Known about the structure:
The protein is an all-alpha fold. 60% of the residues lie in helices and 1% in strands.
Amino acid sequence: NGGIPYECKSIMDKEEPLYREMMHSLKNVMMVVVESLINKFEEDHMRSKEMQRKVKTEQHSSYHTDNCSDSDSSFNQSYTFMNQEQLQLLVEKLDPAQPKEVRQEAMQTLCSAPPSDILNCESWTNLRKHLAAALLDPDPNFSDKVLKFYARTFSSCPLNMTRELYTSLAKYLELYFLSEDNYVPAISMGVDMSNPDIIRLLKKIRLLNEYQREVPSFWIRQPEKYMEEIMESTLSLLSVKCEPNHTVSLKSLEPVYFLALVDLKAVWFKKWMHSYYSRTVVLKLLEKKYKSLIAASIEQCICYLEACESVVHGTCRCHSFSKSHISNKQKNFYTGKELQYISVVHSLSLLGRLLIYKQGRKLFPVQLKNRKDLMSVTDLVIMFIRLICCSPNCPKTLTVHTGNYSPASLITDVLRILCDRKECATECLYTNTVIEALLKPIHYLLNGKEMHLNCREMTLIHIADILARIAAVNDGLSLLLYGGEKPSATDNRSQRGAHTIVQFTKKLLDEDISVLSGSEMLPVLKGAFIFVCHQMYSTCEGLEVLLPYRLHESIVEAWKKTSLLSERIPTPVAGTDCISSVSPESQSFAVLEETLLDDLLNFAATPKGLLLLQSTGAITECVTFMFSRFTKNLQVSGCEKFGYGVIVSQVAATASGAIALQNSGFIKALVTELWGILECGRDDVRITNPRSTPVDPIDRSCQKSFLALINLLSFPAVYELIGQQLIPNKPGYSLREVPTGIIDIIDRLIIVDTDAKIHSLFNYEQSHIFGLRLLNVLCCDLDILLLLESQYKVSEMLLDAQKENAITTSDNSPVFMIDGLSVERNHILVRINVLGGPKERILPSRILNKGDDPYPWPVFSSYPCPMCYFAGFLEKPDMRQDEDVSKLLSALKNTNKQIGWIENTQRQFCDIMERKPRVVSGINLSELIESFVLHLSETPSNCYFIDREYKADANVTTKSLTSVQHLGIKMTISYGKRLNLLGENAENDLCQVLMQCEKFLKQQQTPVKSSLRSLQGGYVSYDWFASSVFLIMMGNKEKTLTFLQQFSHLLVSAFIWIPRLHSSIHLPADAAASGIHPVYYCSAHYIEMLLKAELPLVFSAFHMSGFAPSQICQQWLMQCFWNYMDWSEICHYIAICIFLGPDYQIYMCISVFKHLQQEILQHTQNQDLQVFLKEEALHEFRVSDYFRYMESLASTYRPVLLKDMKNIRVQST
C-alpha cells in the first residue's frame, strides 16, 4: 500500500475521528432505509390479503368485466418460496379426491409460489392433471384462480416452461368439447353471454388466444419442437368436430366458433404466418394432418355464399344480420346466424392469409366434403368475388369497436394484398376466368339485365378497386388489354376486359345506367371506374386500346358539368360552421371535379395522350391542378410512387404545355425555389456556423432544381418562353429582386456580363457556374443553341469573359487564369463551335488534373478554335462505287416496277448493310437514295402525299432567311468542309436550297389560329434534314432540291424531315393547331411503348428519374442525331429510314437505348440521367451492329406501327 496517499491513510485509520463520524452517519442512513423497506413490505402484504378477501366475496355477473388473462405484474407480488417436499405435498392437496376447502387452500398457496419453481418440480405431471381437473370445477372462484395461475405463468416464464401449460390447456379444451357431459350450446340456439358456463369457457378460450398472439415474439429463440407442440395442440383443438349423436339431433358449436368470438379476424393466424420460421411449420402441419381445417373454412364460406345468393335472388327470407341491438352497450346474446357470420369472417381471414404465401397456395386444391370437384386457388378467388357481389352489409353490432367486418371489405383487402405481390397476383388473379368473374356484374348492367347485387354501388366500387390494382401492373394490364394474348393489329376480340370497362365508364359518365341514376354514391362510383381507365390510358399500349372510345371527350364533358355544380357551393361565412353548411352531395361533386381533372391530367403521361388532352382545351386547368397538389406535397395516386416528374417532362416537351406550366405558376415556383437555394438559403434554419463552400459544380442542394429545369427546357418550351424576347439587362439589381422566369435565369445566372449582375449575387461563382452548366446542357440541343446565339450572342459573351480572365504578357500573348468559371466557359465554347460525333471532335474536360499541369487544354478568347479540339484529319470520301452497290443501282435503274421490286431492293440493301456497311456513304449513298426515291415517287400507290408540282424560283434571295437559319448554315458549312464534302461556293447553294424548301413547304401550310409563337409563321428552327441531304449530295444544289421534292411525296418524309408537316394541310386541324409534331405524338409514343416491352429496366429508370424518353428522342430526331453520332452513322440512319420505312426511326431509338442500357441504369443511380443523355454523344454506337436487332423489332411491331403512322393524315371522306 505504499502507493496510497498519506491523506487517505489518515482517513481510513479506525482511530481517527473522521472515520468514526463517517461510520456513524452511514449506520443511521442504513437504519432508515431498512426500516422503510420493512414497512413497505408489511403494507404490501396487508394490501395483498385485503385484495384476496375481496376476491372471495366478489361475484362476477358478466365475463366482460373479467381480466383473467391480464395477469398481475410479478413485480407487485410477494412469493412464498417452497422446497420439493412442500411442492409434493401441495400437489397431493390439489388431488380432485381431496375436500374442496383443502384444494382451495392449496390453490391459494400455489398462486403465491414462483411459477418457474412449480413448472420445474418433480410432480409437475400430476400437478398438470390436477390443474386440468380444477378447470372443470363448478365453483367459478376456484376455476378463476386456476386461470390466473395459467395467465401469470404465461406472462412470466420462458417458452420451454409455458408450452406444457399451453398444450395442457388446449388438450383440456379439446376434451371438453368432445365430452357429452359438458354444456356446449347448439348453433341454432345461439350463445347467451350471461350463462356462467359460457363465461368460464370464453375465459379459457380468450386466455389461449392471448398466448397465441404473444408467443410468436419469442419462440424463435427456442427449439422448433416447442413451437411445433404449441401449433399442433392448437390445430388439433380447432379441428374438433361436434357431430350430433343419437340423443342430441342438433350440432353443437365447435371450438373455432368460440375462438372467432374472441379473435374475429384471426390475428393469431396472421402472426403465426408472418415469419418464414413459423410459417413453414404451420403449413407443414396443415398439409400433413389438419387439411380438414382448411376444408372446413371453405365449406363455411360456401354455405354462407349459398345462403346470401338465395337471399339476393329472393328465394329465401332475408338474413337478420342487419338487425342490430344498437341500444345495448354490451351484447349479451348472439344468434345462430350471427355466429355463422362471425365464423365466416374468421374463415375468410384465415383463407386470405393462406393465399398470400406460396407454400400456402400449394395446399390447394382441397377436397371438400360432399363435393366431387376439388377446390383450386382460382375457384377460391372466384368464390371470394361472388361473395363481394352478394354478401350483405356488416351487422352493426360487429362494428362497435374496430370498424367494418363485412365480408366484401375483408375480401377486397385480401385481393388488394394479392394485387400488390407479383407472384401472388400471377397465380391467383391474372387469369381470364377471374377477370370474367370480376366483370360479370358490369356485363349485366351494360346489357340492361337485372343483376342481383346486395349493394350495387359498394360492390362495383370494390370491383373497381381490384381492377385498378390489376391494371397498375404490366402483367395485369396486358391481361385486361389483350386477354393474355399478344396484341394484334387486326383482331380485337381478345380485348374484352378493357373494352367492357371503358364502355361501362362512358355510360357512368353519361349517367346512362338507369338502376344507378340518382344514387348518392354515383360520383364516387364514377371516380372509381375512371381510375381503372386512368391506369390503362396512362400507358402507351393502354391508350392505343382505349383510343377509339374517345374517353377524353367524355371526361372533359363530365368535368365541365361537375364544375358548374360545384360552383353552387355557398361561400363560407365568418362565424358559421363551414363544414355543416355544405351538403354531402356538394362535397362529393367537389371531390369528383378534382378526380376528373386528375384523370384528364394523366392523359399527359404519354405523348399521344398529351395531344388528346390539348384537344380538350383543358390543359391549363389540369396543369394548374397538378401544381396545386405539388405545392401541397400530396400523393399523386394510390398506385403511383414517383410523383409528377414524367408528366411534367411530357408536358414541357410541347409548346402549349410550356405555356400551361407558365400560366399555372409552376415555372415561377421552380425558379423562386432555385434562387432561394442558390442565393438565400433556408429562412427557417438557424445559422450558428457559416455555410460550407460547395465542392461540386452543382451542389447537392441545387441538384433537384437543376434537373427540374433540364426536364422543363426542351426546344418547343424554350422558344415559347424566351423566343423573340430580349433579356432585361438592367443597370442595377436590388438584392431583394428575385427572378421569376426562364428569361430572368438567363439574365442573372448565364449572361452575367455586367458589374451590376455580378454585385447582385451573394454567391457569384457558385451561381454563375450553375448557370453555365445549365447553358451547357441547353446548347446540346442545336435548335436551342441557334436560338440563344441569334438572340443573345452567348458565344461573344463567353469569349469576352475569357478575355477579362487573361493577363497579357510582354510578348502580347494572353495567359489565362484557370478557375472554375474559365474551365466551364472553355468547355461550352468548344461544344458550340465544333460540331461532330464522338470520333469527330474532342471536348475539353471540366475537371482539373493533379500534378504540375492541372489543365492541359488550351483556352482561347477569339476564333478560330484551337485545332486540338478537332479529331484529326478526315479523309476525302471514296468516290469509287462498290460492286454490290453497283448491282443494286443497276437493278433500280432497269426495274420495270414489277410486283415485289421494293421487297427485292430492300433485301439487297439489308444484305449490304449487314456485310459491309462502310460502303453505304458518299457517292454510293447519294445515288442509292436518289434512284430509290425517284422510283417510289413515280408510283402513285407509293406516294402518301399528293402535292402539286413545284418549280424552283430562280429569283429567290437569301434576304428572307432568319438569323437562326444563317447561323445554322454557317455551322453546316463548317462541318461539311471538315468532312471534305463541300466546296467553296457551298454556303450560297445551301442558302438557295433552304429558301426553295421554305417556299415549297409554305404552299402546303394552312393558317392556324393560335397564340403560340411557333405557329405564327413558318418553321421557327433550322432544317437539319435538308442540310444532311445537302451534305450527302456533296453540296449539289440541283440534286438536293430534286431529291427533296420527290421525297416529300413519301410517308417517311413526315417523320424524318421535321419542317415537312409544320402547320401542314395534311394534318388534322386539331393536330396542326396544337403545334405538336407527329414525331412526338406518333414516333416518340411508340418508342415509349416498345421501350417498356423490350427494355423494361431502361423504361423504369426513366420513370424513376422523372424524365420522359420521348423528350430526348424528340431532340435526337429533330436534329438528325447531329453531335450525337458520327457522320457515317447519321447517313446510315437516314438510309435505313428511306429504304426500309419510317418505323425504323423508332427501332433506331430503341437500339440506342439498348446500347446505353448499363450507362442509363448507372446514371439513374447517380441521379443525373437527363444530363448524361443530353450531354454525352453515343460512343461506340454503330447502326450496323444493331441492324439485325432492328429487323427483329420490325417483324414483331411493324403491322401496328405502320398502320398508325399512315393514320396521321386527314382521311378522305
